[in-house]
Amino acid sequence: MMMTRIIREAKPTDITDIMQVMEAAKKIMRQSGNLHQWADGYPSEAVIISDMEKHGGFVLEEGDGEDQSTGRIVGYFAFLPSPEPTYSKIYDGQWTDDTLPYHVIHRIASYPDVHGIFNDIMDFCFSHDANIRIDTHKDNRIMQHNIEKHGFTYCGIIYLANGRSSESRQARLDGRVVTDEGEANGDERMAYQKLNNDSVFHQKSFQELTVDELYELLRIRSEVFVVEQNCVYQDMDGDDQKSIHLWLTVANKVVALARVCPAGTHMKEVSIGRVITTERGKGYGKQIMLYAIEAAEKHFDAKQIDIEAQEYAKGFYESVGFKQSSETFMLDGIPHIKMTLNIE
Questions:
Q1: Which among 33, 129, 248, 254 counts the fewest CB atoms within 10 Å?
Q2: Nearest Cα to 135, choosing from 157, 112, 109, 168?
């Protein structure tokens, strides 16, 4: 039977399996000549539990087909949001970008007989953030090779607390504080960053949105539909709570968004609306519309999708399959037409 691999958030009940993976990874390090990284019991169970408490610990689990009940944990990594205190100072170089929020990857570990782990981790992480930093020990040739192969840029050197961990979290757990002297004598790490300029797709229900995500989507809608178009209207119309919200980001900046409303809310049929591209001419508008059509079928079993399109955008919506299905009408002082896509 074909084996499948998933990535899921780690649970406290996984700790024994995770620590076994860590021990296997240490053996790989020692056999490859990396004699000093992850010494003296690091990473400890306390470090892994700390990752879990921050919802940043993840396992790679293999199972038979779709049945993960007999799954085997074959890998682990931490994926944590900025700021990372250890990265506040960098020597002999500079970060590719030091202005945008980022995520950091720590503690990648797997069994030696399992292949493609690093690829899976990169795909997962870059589906959640386009700006990622990572560091590794100067003797970890295997990790350096994987990092560079995946397009990360070498940025410089960072120093860790007493050489104990790949980040300052372990130092804080041990009750230590990094000082300038500690940095000078600490464990050296090679620091990398990758800023992925490919668009990253996001899709959430209203209830799944974070406060910051909701604020940003509403801010952009107000900026475009109210301020730029000089149109005073009620953007927050009560349909958002029942809708699926979609957006694209490039380097953590929203470049396109839309929402998909179920039948009987904004329109009689399933509908797509609030379509915006903040960077025109790059294909983001068509991309978000294709995602929206897919979401309408998946979440609301749509057989027909309607939109209220501003008349000037008729050609754009025709490019993704919509056809005009009404005469021109005025909506909030702007000429609109109804357009319909029939799903075969």
A1: 33
A2: 157
